[in-house]
Fold this protein.
Amino acid sequence: MDFNYKEFKEKYGQEAADIVQNEIDSAEDLNLKWQLQVSHENEHWINFLFVTQIDARTFRVYKRSKKIIPKVLISRGECEKILTIMKELGA
C-alpha cells in the first residue's frame, strides 16, 4: 500500500496519519522496507498492519469518530500475514 499523508489524513484522521508517518520515518531511518495493509474492515472500523522486516504494529480506526485504538491482541491470521510480509520484505 502506498502512503499519501494528505489522503490518509482526510479518510482516517490526523492521529492515524501521524502514527503511520512516524512509523514510515522510523523505518526509513533504519533502512527498513515496510508495508502498510488493511488486515480487517467492517462497517464500524478498519484494522491496519504496519510491518517491517523486524517488527509490526497494528491499530484500529473507527470510521465515524476516527478514534484510534492500538490493538494488543493479534489473531492467528494477522500473525501469519505479518510473517508472510516480513518474508517478502527480506527478513
Notes: The radius of gyration is 13 Å. The helical segments are 5-12, 14-29, 76-88. The first strand starts at residue 34 and ends at 41.
